[in-house]
Amino acid sequence: MKIRPAHTVENIKPYFFASLNKTLAELKAKGLDIIRLDMGSPDLPPAQFIIERLIESARDPKKHGYAPMGGSSAFLKAVADYYKTRFEVSLNPKTEALALLGSKEGIFNINHTLLDPGDIVLMPDPYYPVYLAGAQLADSRVFFMPLLKENDFLPDLQAIPREIAREAKMMWLNYPNNPTGAVAGLDFFTEAVEFARENEIVIVHDAPYTDLTFDGYRAHSILEVPGAKDVAIEFNSLSKTYNMAGWRIGMAVGNAEVIRLLATYKSQIDNSIFTPIMDAGALALTGDQSWLVERNLVYQERRDVVYDGLVEAGFEVEKPKAALYLWARLPEKFGDPMQFCADVLNETGVSLTPGVIYGPSGKDYIRISIITPTPQIKEAMKRLVAWIKEN
Ligand SMILES: Cc1ncc(COP(=O)(O)O)c(C=O)c1O
After folding, report:
1. What is the pTM of this model?
2. Three-state SS for 206?
3. For labelling, which of 22, 24, 76, 289 has a CA lying 20 to 30 Å from the CA of 68?
């Protein structure tokens, strides 16, 4: 029998990092010394007190059954407390917060929650790949908002044709941004909220990097804009903020009706999160935050090493104030960044990400992550600079 997939599934490509992992395993087996500057999985562990809480909670025999759908009240209260302390944003933990199995889960599920086939989604280009796959699997139509260097990698909302804006149902934003490392100020978020209100669009702001900032910069939540909760939800995550990427815990906050709909949709799919993970997550959000300062200094040093190497190698690149990535324009002589990344990987073992996997505007760029131990990053940049000088 010939298996016939859904047409939406047929058109979806495998997740880039899933195929890259396979290639890297093959190269490693051949003896190549691989240094990964590609994915965004933090290499550092969470603070010890968070791990201790997980262990202590897991020892409690009462913590092993199904947890409350949408998250334990302790976790949701911690989310609200965190938003109050960190952003001065008040949330009702019962109606305006929802626990997620990592924010990727919510980012995917929001599509089917809000979109009918043919609905228009406004999407930054470059984008986090799950935005596009989610939209495609919901059979919606995508309108790209290019993020250009000359606009500080912010979308130009006034450039969106009026009829598209009127018809659009949902708009993605993501600051601090993956992959560009750009940040957005409250003036931009205010403009976006106004635009969404005028055009009756739900803003979905994806904000997992608000606590990975450098040089004293403080990133914003879109919910800091007065009235933002009328039109916006925000995805956030413990993955990057607290080095808990493998734990799979995140949250959606904001507009109560969107949160209710997403909670209903996802209640058909999953059965909440392991309670000890939520207990430890609650402590991460509300406990001592001072360890994040030291951790961010580690990232900041790595950012500087990568930036200096890229400049020496002739890339056009900005020094990001936040997130875990440098977005670098390839020197013209190299042509295709996809080929460039393949050549660099095969000849030096340094694994980079071609910008085009994040959308058409990324076609001349590469993304470099800073989630590898500092000595390895230094070695990778040495190899990259030497390779570029030879080629
Ligand atoms: C922009 C962005 N959003 C969401 C995620 C997903 O994070 P998680 O599912 O671990 O919360 C990532 C991970 O790399 C990301 O870069």
Report:
1. 0.96
2. strand
3. 289
